Amino acid sequence: MKKAVVLLSGGLDSATCLAMARDRGYQCYTIAFDYGQRTRSELDAAKRVSAALGAVSHRVIELGMGNIGGSALTDHSIEVPEEGGDGIPVTYVPARNTVFLSLALGLAEVVDAEAIYIGVNAVDYSGYPDCRPAFIEAFQAMAGLATKAGVEGRPVTIETPLMHLSKAQIIQAGTALGLDYGLTVSCYQADENGNACGKCDSCRLRKQGFDEALVKDPTNYQ
């Protein structure tokens, strides 16, 4: 059976990616990152989603990105914004997806996976530069050059099935696959039980997505 590594944050998008990969016939190896983020409850959510969708294994990799700082998600001295704005927001974590994909690429080589699934999105992407198609294309080229699999002519493919979908379309797709979004946590500042603030950009996009998808929002709010 073909294999895929799925980056799983515990949020809505990555959970949908896992459901899609499974639906496409992949044995899935999920990977989450404890990178110093504000909310630990998303790691609990990732574990729940991985188990519910029958992943072969679930790994949590510890990273010290909180030691670098520079983001409202890793530096508690920077407030999480509760209104959208222009430009790259302070919730951007410097080089996060570059680091995440690099480690996922290593795991893909170890388990002999042919694909990596990541839930980046160019529609509702909050202005993050490492969620754009150009970034994925560049990383794909690098993956072909920097790995044993790539040199041997079987490069790992970076799959981005959500890239051009709206949040509503993502929710509709996951719902059609039977995904329980009540298992997920998207909030930038959820409490230890996973209850969402209902005010941050991530909550705003999630709420709007459920409204536009005409799907009941299962989120627990503070």
Question: Could you please describe the fold and organization of this structure?
Answer:
This is 7-cyano-7-deazaguanine synthase. Pfam families: QueC. Catalyzes the ATP-dependent conversion of 7-carboxy-7-deazaguanine (CDG) to 7-cyano-7-deazaguanine (preQ(0)). This protein has 222 residues and is α/β, with parallel strands linked by helices. It has one domain: HUPs (Rossmann fold, 3-Layer(aba) Sandwich), CATH 3.40.50.620. The protein has helices spanning 12-23, 41-52, 96-111, 133-146, 148-151, 167-176, 201-213, and strands at 3-7, 27-34, 57-62, 115-117, 157-159. Strands 3-2-1-4-5 form a five-stranded parallel β-sheet, with helices on both faces. Helix 1 (12-23) links the parallel strand 1 (3-7) and strand 2. Helix 1 (12-23) crosses helix 6 and helix 6 (167-176) crosses helix 7 (201-213). The longest helix has 16 residues, at 96-111. It starts with a strand and ends in a 9-residue tail after the last helix. The mean pLDDT is 93.
Major sheet details: 5 strands, parallel
User: What percentage of residues falls in helices of 4 or more residues?
Assistant: 25-40%
**For the residues shown, what is the average pLDDT?**
93
List segments where confidence is low: pLDDT < 50 over at least 5 consecutive residues: none
Number of strands: 5
Structural class by helix and strand composition: alpha/beta
For this structure, the quaternary state is single chain
Task: Walk across the major sheet and give the strand order.
Answer: 3-2-1-4-5
End-to-end separation? 42 Å
CATH topology: Rossmann fold
